[in-house]
Amino acid sequence: MTEKENNPMEEKRSLSFVEQMVENDLAEGKNGGRIQTRFPPEPNGYLHIGHAKAICMDFGIAERYGGVCNLRFDDTNPSKENNEYVENILNDISWLGFHWGNVYYASDYFQQLWDFAVWLIKKGRAYIDEQTSEEIAQQKGTPKEPGIASPYRDRPVEENLRLFASMNTPEAVEGSMVLRAKLDMANPNMHFRDPIMYRIIHTPHHRTGTQWHAYPMYDFAHGQSDYFEGVTHSICTLEFVPHRPLYDQFIDFLQEKEGQTDYRPRQIEFNRLNLTYTMMSKRKLLALVTEKKVSGWDDPRMPTLSGMRRRGYSPESVRKFIDSIGYTKFDALNDMALLEAAVREDLNYRSLRVSAVLDPVKLTITNYPDGQEEQMTAINNPENEADGTHEITFTKHLWIERDDFMEDAPKKFFRMTPGKEVRLKNAYIVMCTGCRKNEAGEVEEIFAEYDPESKSGKEGANRKVKGTLHWVSADHCEKAEVRIYDRLFNVEDPSSDERDFRELLNPESLRVLDCCYVEPYAAERKPGEYLQFQRIGYFMADLDSTRDHLVFNKTVSLKDTWAKIKN
């Protein structure tokens, strides 16, 4: 039985346009019926949610059609790349639940790319240009006006070969010369106007050290790397649409060099992922890190996968969100609330329920015996019986949330107020009898009496009260720091705002509560364990958390409160 036959939901899901193109290629028998994709990140930063969309497409296509997806690091610019980024990219892809066939690097093909460039020079299709980058840019023209040919365009082949060899020496001066393809300076596609193929960089490479001093540009390295590896479908985002003719042109040249025409990769473009109140530029995200506007690439406010993992997002929720927004040929700005809804829905099924009080005020049960303790049974996850239960200790002195009490409450306030009953979750029904205030008029302690016959689970004890409050025992709890996160940027679309992106940062994006209390069972949870602080939201222990200093990150609220605040 095939996967589609075994999964009726798969039959109902409509195919994306990318899947339709792949199926058409399979039906036509292209590339021998093979499906091979690749995910090609540049190791110059951490992956973000936008990369996750590409990962889901690249790996998803291979999985769905019995192919293979390889991971290839586009490491052609050593001045921005390092092994830290490589390791984190590997971790992030694994966290999302995908498995690559092989790991490749563009640097694996440096010699083949160099040899191909030499072949192009010998064929009269490439030349060394010694103009400055500013001069080259000025001569490119505009989409409506043809460019001006470089004065070096008709250099003799032998001179080009000699200069190209000199580019790959320690003595070569960065910016003194480049290798350009000799294509068409009048082509309306600006990428065809003698694109740069190689430039000089002396920064040691994270894999090849100082072996190379001349490095290929992305447009020259990418398609050829696809070809060398046997990629059948090179899937990328819409900004590469104008690059596709150049991609195909270099493949044409390479096929001519190799003397074969029965295989060629096909570039397909889809819309990139944009989120409200989020910046996806790796350059700007790097600036936030280096300028210490955030605590690091994995700051829970960052759109990076490591930041989302640290904040408490599940990989399943990220994949569910990406599947829900789909793939099109039109860029759009997706609402962050859609991602948070996917996270909220997923965590509801996998989170352990625990008790925590973030803004505590003391509650004393005046008629409860001094020194008495009771173990109350708490269900770990009502959505999954297999998660079992744990015990929480009930005592005379408790902590409850400050905003769960109001001395002079309106009629529809169904929490704690003098003369009204509420249930303490998993415990007893209590009636508030009053409170004690300090000189400033702030409530310091609340008093209540409990009904000994109202214990949760006891036969006949479930009489109806309108409010249920969470609590922790003041004698059996642990102090914790809780970090509450908000949008990192104040404007809906910071990427299109002309102001400096630093001016758009939300100064209230992190709020630290340093006097919270959690039950002992919550204190034992580790990073990676999904928690629901009952009646508050979803949380996870932070990487900074220790037994002596507990730290929890708020992942997302139980309900979408942002829209109400925004409006």
Q: Could you describe the 3D structure shown?
A:
This protein has 567 residues and is of the alpha/beta class. The protein is built from 16 helices and 27 strands. A seven-stranded mixed β-sheet has the order 12-25-26-27-23-24-13. A hairpin with a 4-residue loop joins strand 18 and strand 19. Mean pLDDT is 94; it is low at 1-11.
Summarize the structure.
This protein is of the alpha/beta class and 567 residues long. It has 16 helices and 27 strands.
- The tally of strands reads 27
* Overall spatial form: elongated
Q: Which spans have pLDDT < 50 for at least 5 consecutive residues?
A: 1-11
Based on helices, strands and strand pairing, what is the structural class?
Answer: alpha/beta
Radius of gyration: 31 Å
How many helices in DSSP terms?
16
What share of residues are in beta strands? 15-25%
Mean pLDDT figure: 94
Notable features of this structure?
alpha/beta; 27 strands; 7-stranded mixed beta sheet; disordered N terminus; single chain; elongated; 567 residues
